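Memo subject: From amino acid sequence to discrete backbone structure tokens
Keywords: amino acid chain, backbone geometry, structure tokens, three-dimensional fold.
Body of memo: The sequence and its backbone structure tokens, given next.
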Amino acid sequence: SITKTFIATTVLKLVEEGRLGLSDTVGQWLPSLGCSNVSPAITIQQLLEHRSGVYNFGDEVPFQLALFTDLNRYWQPEDVFSYVHAPYFAPDRGGQYSNTGYVLLGMIIRSVTGGTVDTQLLSNVFGPAGLHSTVLGAGMNWRGELADPHIDVNGDGIQEEFGNDTQTAILTSFWTSGGIVSTPADLVRFSTALFEGGLLSSNSLAQMRTFQPVLVGNVSIDYGLGLIRYNILGHEHWAHSGGLFGEYSWFSYCPDTRVSLGVTYNYTQTVMSGPSLPGELLIALSTLNNAALQTRTAKEPLTEPVNIPFVP
């Protein structure tokens, strides 16, 4: 789901270029969508900030069954809309996390530019940020092999290696909501370019950092435009997390310490119910970079509870 920050950056670049407006609507750019459960009155901004009310296809068990029935399937963006039910609420009447909204944004990027999302990511984000190992997995080739996620497929408590199976169906179905393949080093480069390197204008960054409450399941998070705000030991962090079937990822930037963090790792139920790895790392980094916390060194136990909600 860190893909969402990349897509939000791409959309805001198009806004800066005058090719798209945050108040533009789904009906304006996708007049032939043909899904009665997606209101044509939804705006670009509402999609970016998860205030569109559009139903999250990723929550649907029938979708997940279809996904794993044929992992070789190449999903088209339009295919997921058969799993989009009635909206959670009317546009701008609440906040609810939805992968569907970011698939719609990918389709809108194609409509606005007349080209592929891959091309826009390369020219507006990957290239300017100096990313060498980041691709949109649905349509771009990458060098080397994917890291092997592990997942307990049959519930026997054993984490099976999942990386030997094709990722085509997963990467293409989630597409612009979760299909980017990257590395921790590139996530740090992206974070630094976004918040310190002029990737976006100051006005666009200010809009990206306008946070409102959004529900992820029953947990409320502070969400901006493709960005989450966390407070860890008194420090604000601009971040996003995500994961798909056996892997977890995180990137963040702390304006107080100017520390960027990129993390990717396998996760299990034990890992997810225990201490948060990004949280523990951020506590240690904050300790190293803030004189107010020097009463404890990074080698001492990290005892403060850190609640970082998992955002798939």
Observations:
- The longest helix spans residues 99-113.
- The mean pLDDT is 86.
- The longest strand covers residues 235-242.
- The chain has eleven helices and ten strands.
